[in-house]
Amino acid sequence: MSNNYKLLVKNAKQVVLICSSGEKFLTKHGMQNLCVIENGSVVIGSDGLIKAVGPAGIISAQYPELSFDKVIDAAGMCVLPGLVDAHTHPVWAGDRVHEFAMKLAGATYMDVHRAGGGIHFTVEHTQAAGSLELLASLSSRLLRMQRAGTTLVECKSGYGLELHTELKMLQVIEEARRSLPINISSTYCGAHAVPKGKTVAEATEDVLQVQLPELKERMSAGSLRVDNIDVFCEEGVFDLGSTRSILQAGKDLGLNINFHGDELHPMNSAQLGAELGALAISHLEEVTDEGIAAMATARTAAVLLPTTAYILRLPQPRARDMLEAGVIVALGSDFNPNAYCCSMPVVMHLACVNMRMSMSEALAAATINAAYALGCSHTHGSLEVNKHGDLLVLNAARWEHLIYQLGGHQELIRYVVIKGNVVVDNDKILNL
């Protein structure tokens, strides 16, 4: 017979709540002043939700240990919310390691694209791959993210560019959602590139008249759950007019607008997103001052991707300008064949070094703000009562080690917990 509660994490040297008053996001000074309890404990109920978090002495007096299925003594360790990766492309076939050499030799993103590489290379291989192959590789990648501390991840389609493969990718994401412990936010990104042999107008028409109606039908039937809609708004890809049409159509289906904008050229994507009520815009390496101001006013999150700027040798996103303007800044790994990074701790480290964010800003951006960018900050992103019991236990006396230490996550992250269940126990792995 099950006990009253699933998990007690007790006596942690630090428990980093992030926020404690139900905030859905943090900006400016809030990101600099995270809520931290010294010598704290966390109680997770049998339903996987947090029931209490506070000083260890108070928790121990209120909750006898015999009431728990499992007790973790975190003395000398730190407890943090599970990390949230707000931007990934994890469903694909076809290795692009050869393109890394091209980029190192000076080829730009669009040079690789024009040479037959980039998105179109992956599209050909993904179209040819079977669902079981795609599910196996996706599952492996998600488990790797989980071992590095990610407990909620956004997963995009977008390597199909036609109805059959886009639906195949979304179905694979749905299967992963049902079979793996990691939390998934699913994104339809059929407008990731213009298919070969089509114009922008033809590609836009296909998304609007063929793909989205079928997506609507499957969502209505309950066979598919999709949360967000994405478009690659970029010079030579989808222009502002096409982007507006597709994003509005997705919003009309009940999807959150969460799209690629202002990456390689200043397209005024930020202003468009703010006007449409976008939940989030990613990249923004070329965002303008006007775009930053519009996003701050509209409460549209900026999902910054330091791995992409690093790998493509692009200008870094203007994180400091966005933070000072009051924009909700979030982080994502942009995991894809072009930027192969599964680790949000590495992303936070790059954000601090290359984008000049503080460690507390980076952690807020990879927890509560990344959850906000996915419409999930009411359930994820902080350690507060009634939120999901998703957390990390660090083998360190200060939480900052998660960002300070570059790599070596298996030695640093002792446990990963999702809804009160220990899904990673690195002590067992290291002692095999």
What summary fits the major beta sheet? 8 strands, mixed
Total number of beta strands:
16
Q: What do the pLDDT scores average to?
A: 96
Silhouette = globular
Uncertain stretches: none
Structural class: alpha/beta
- Helical content (DSSP H or I, runs of 4+): 40-55%
As a whole number of angstroms, the C-alpha radius of gyration is 21 Å
Q: Give the termini separation.
A: 31 Å
Q: Name the assembly state.
A: single chain
How many DSSP helices? Answer: 19
Strand content: 15-25%
Record the SSE blueprint.
Layout: E1 5-18, H1 28-32, E2 35-45, E3 50-55, H2 56-62, E4 68-73, E5 78-81, E6 83-85, H3 97-104, H4 109-114, H5 119-128, H6 131-147, E7 150-156, H7 163-179, E8 183-191, H8 200-221, E9 228-231, H9 240-252, E10 256-261, H10 269-276, E11 280-283, H11 289-298, E12 301-304, H12 306-312, H13 319-325, E13 329-331, H14 344-354, H15 359-365, H16 368-373, E14 391-394, H17 401-404, H18 409-412, E15 413-418, E16 421-425, H19 426-430
Helix pairs in contact: 6-7, 8-9, 10-11, 14-15
Describe this structure in words.
With 432 residues, the chain is α/β, with parallel strands linked by helices. Helices cover 40% and strands 22% of the residues. A hairpin with a 2-residue loop joins strand 15 (413-418) and strand 16 (421-425).
Short account of what is shown:
The protein has 19 helices and 16 strands.
Name some characteristics of this structure:
432 residues; alpha/beta; 8-stranded mixed beta sheet; 8-stranded parallel beta sheet; 19 helices; 40% helix; globular
